[in-house]
Structure formats: C-alpha cells, structure tokens
Design goal:
disordered N terminus, mainly alpha, 22 helices, 2 domains
C-alpha cells in the first residue's frame, strides 16, 4: 500500500520617499507586449507539466475521494473543510478531461496569479517611483521560480496556487477601490474574493494585514492610520465569519484536536521556526528542492534553530524600520514574512513545511530581485543580456524540475535522492516500482525504508506482500507470478 502524506510571500530603485514622485498611485499604462510576454513565458516553462502524473496526496484527496467524484457528491458532503478547493476538484472530474484537465486548470491559475502579481507590483512601482521594469522582472521571477512547481505541477498543490490567485485578486480590488473610491470594489468584490480564498486554504487569514501593508506603500495618498481599520473592516467581518464557521465545523474541530496532540507548544515553536528557516533556504538552494522533505520535529533549542529565529526577527525589524525610508524594500521583506505559514505558530502540523507554502510569500523576494535587476536593463548590452540569462535560467530550472512529476517512480526517486533518511519516500518508491513489476528494485526500496525506520509498519507489510507474490493495492497491475 502506498502511504499518503498526513492530512492536513539609485534611490528610485530602492523606493526611497525622495524618489517617489508620481502624482497618482495608479500604475502607468502597461506595455502592450508585457502581459503576453509574461503569459507566454509561464506557458512555455510549464508545458511539460501537462504530462505529469498523479502523485502522493493526489490519490487521497482527488482520485480516490468519493466526495469530489461529482459536483452533486461535493454538495452532499457540505459543510466541509476547504469547500471551494473541493468544488474545483469535483468540477475537474465532472469535465471528463481527466488528468490533463487538472493540469490545465492548475496552469491557468498560475498564469492568472502571474498577471495579478505583475499588476500589483506595477502599482507599487508607480506609487514609489521604482523602475517600471522592476514589476515585470519581479512577476517573471515569481512565476518562473522552480520552487513554485509544487503548487503548479503537483495537482493537489492547487490549494496554494488557487488561494494565492484569489488573494491577489482581493488585494488588487481593494487597492483599486480605495484609489477610485469605488465601494463595490474595496468593500464588495475584495472581501468576496478573500472569502473564496479562505474556502480554498486558510492562509488568506493574513490578508487584512497584507492590505494594511499595501495601503502603507501603494495605497491612495489619503490612506492613514486613522482610516486603516475602517478600510479593512469588511475583511475583518469575513475573517470573523470564517472563524465562526471553523469553530462550528466538527471536521475542523477534529483536525485541530489531532494537531494539538502532535507536540507541545515549545516543541511546536522550535519546529515551526526551523521549518521557516528551511523554507527561506529553498528560495536560493535550487539544488535541494524536495516534494517530501520529512523535516523532523525539534524538541530542544539548537544553534541552527536559534540562528533561524534570529534571522526571522532581524528581517522583521529591518522591514519595519525601512517602511518610511525605503518602502519598496520594506514591502518585499514584510510581504515575504507575512505570507509564510502563519497557523504553524499555534497549530502543529504533521508535516512542518512543504514548498507550496512559499507560493504567495515568494512575491516578496521576487519583487526585491526585480528592484535589483531593473537598473541593469539600462546599463549596457552585457548586463541586459545577464538579466535575460538569469530569467531564462529560472525557467530552465523549472522545466527540469517538472520532470520529477512525470511518473510516480521518477517522483519518489527524486525525493529519496534528496532525503535518504525518509522512510516514507523509500516505501512509496517501492510501491511505485512494484506497480511496474520491478520486484527486485521494489524489495530493495522497502528494505531501505526499514533501515531508515525499523518500525515502519507499511514498509514491513509491503515487503511481506511482495515476498508472497501478492498485489500491494487495488491499483497494482498483475505481474508475472503474482497471486
């Protein structure tokens, strides 16, 4: 039996106030080719993702989940956890387009996120007097970075990308509504999109704070502390309603109860800090991208955890200190910290971290990269070529990373190559190999799982079934000599 994962952001370039001279917070007219370039780059980079297979959690939350088999089955299962996400799965299955349809929707969501990210960064660049190219380069970095593959190529990673797209839409509607004094946008459409985002994934709970950050750096000139709370009051009402629905839901209460049993508050704090440090490192360590890192729980303070905590606190202090003097830089830092998984501070997770948690948080570092690289476009052919090469390198790394999702064997071989201590990965690799009738290789994988964790029950059972020539599960095809 395969083993599922446990259930479950010059002075002009820096954005100094002295450089922020535009008369309006509205973004300048976008170049006609900009959106086409961005969309084409995403489509080209993720074209080979369309051939990917179902992986890992996909089997449990989509393929073998009767509650998303049809839209009527989804409706009958309500109220439930993440209703909007599950509706998207049910609609995909009802479409009859199969696996290709799931991948196409994920890709369309990511294209939408990239375009929304560009629109948001354009507004920030215009408001703060940063180079317009910084917005496009930031959006390209956000869209093409290979760490995003887990939210795009991995089908059930849609929970992060769809929630992110809806949150970006909510933020843009809020900014546009405040700028135009259009109540239907900032107090109507924006909170509605926030509610939908919460219905996909709970990460949108930090959106009201994100709106305050956007109001401080890219909002209308009249935005002030006195008007801050009234400006986000509709979103706070959405948050209160969501909290009430959460507390009233038996499914959510069971989930919280199980989570709180995982580890005590001190161990959870250390584990979460360690996980956030690991996530931050994944942005630059492209050689260690891993769909199932199996990070261990941390029970005592170590130098690495202390360093991670100090780094997070220093980044927060720097971001807050720079809000007045260099708001463009402050936005990138604070947006990243804000959209890192917030619930992990008080709610233990079976898996401390996964790369898809970086989906929206990545927009912060991507914007900082755009700020740093934009001046190079006007600094001569050599530097301009270097910028193009860097963007192309990100896209190439994503194309290569997508190949890890082409089959279950490729997926788990990639995981065990990066985390050989991961007993679950070795076991699931064994199941995938057995599904191809590669019995000897499967046996070796199960034995490696038991070496990593002698108490791994599933690997022991699978090894016994394999030695008896019996199928490992209902999806396993008959192999020669198998009973």
């Amino acid at each position: 039996m395969g083993e599922p994962a446990p259930p479950a952001e010059s002075d002009a370039a820096a954005g100094s106030p002295a450089a922020a001279a535009p008369t309006s917070g509205a973004p300048p007219e976008a170049p006609a080719w900009g959106q086409w370039l961005l969309a084409a780059a995403v489509l080209a980079t993720y074209a080979n993702a369309l051939a990917g297979s179902f992986q890992f959690d996909d089997w449990n939350v989509i393929v073998d989940e009767p509650r998303v088999a049809t839209v009527s089955a989804w409706w009958a299962s309500m109220p439930g956890i993440r209703p909007v996400l599950k509706l998207s799965y049910a609609a995909n299955r009802a479409s009859g387009l199969g696996l290709a349809g799931f991948h196409a929707v994920n890709l369309a969501v990511h294209v939408a996120s990239a375009l929304l990210a560009w629109a948001l960064l354009r507004r920030i660049a215009a408001r703060l007097g940063a180079p317009p190219a910084a917005a496009l380069l930031g959006a390209l970095s956000f869209a093409l970075h290979p760490v995003q593959t887990e939210a795009v190529t991995y089908v059930s990673g849609r929970s992060s990308s769809l929630a992110g797209a809806l949150a970006l839409g909510s933020a843009l509607a809020w900014l546009e509504g405040r700028e135009r004094r259009a109540t239907w946008l900032w107090a109507g459409l924006s909170p509605l999109l926030m509610a939908l985002s919460l219905g996909v994934k709970e990460t949108a709970l930090v959106l009201p704070v994100a709106l305050l950050l956007l109001g401080a750096v890219a909002g209308p000139r009249a935005f002030s502390r006195r008007r801050a709370l009234p400006a986000i009051s509709p979103h706070l009402l959405v948050l209160a309603a969501a909290a009430g629905a959460f507390l009233a839901s038996p499914a959510y209460r069971r989930m919280v109860s199980r989570s709180l049993e995982l580890r005590d508050p001190w161990a959870n704090l250390l584990t979460h800090v360690d996980a956030l440090g690991w996530l931050a490192g994944q942005i630059v360590r492209l050689d260690r991208l891993n769909a199932d890192p199996a990070l261990p729980a941390v029970t005592s303070l170590s130098p690495s955890v202390a360093l991670a905590g100090l780094g997070l606190l220093s980044a927060l202090a720097a971001g807050l200190a720079l809000l007045r003097r260099r708001p463009a830089v402050a936005f990138g830092v604070l947006w990243f910290l804000l959209w890192l998984p917030a619930t992990g501070w008080w709610l233990p997770r079976p898996e401390p971290a996964s790369e898809r948690q970086l989906y929206l948080a990545l927009l912060g570092p991507a914007w900082l990269a755009g700020l740093a690289l934009a001046p190079w476009l006007a600094a001569g052919t050599i530097r301009r070529t270097g910028v193009v090469a860097l963007v192309a390198a990100l896209g190439t790394a994503t194309v290569l990373r997508n190949r890890a999702y082409r089959s279950e064997v490729a997926f788990w071989e990639d995981v065990v190559s990066r985390s050989p201590h991961n007993a679950r990965a070795h076991n699931n690799l064994g199941v995938a190999l057995a599904g191809r009738c590669l019995t000897l290789e499967a046996e070796a994988a199960f034995r490696r799982a038991l070496e990593a964790d002698p108490g791994h029950f599933r690997a022991a059972v699978n090894l016994e079934l394999l030695s008896e020539g019996r199928a490992l599960g209902p999806r396993a095809p008959p192999c020669p000599g198998m009973r």
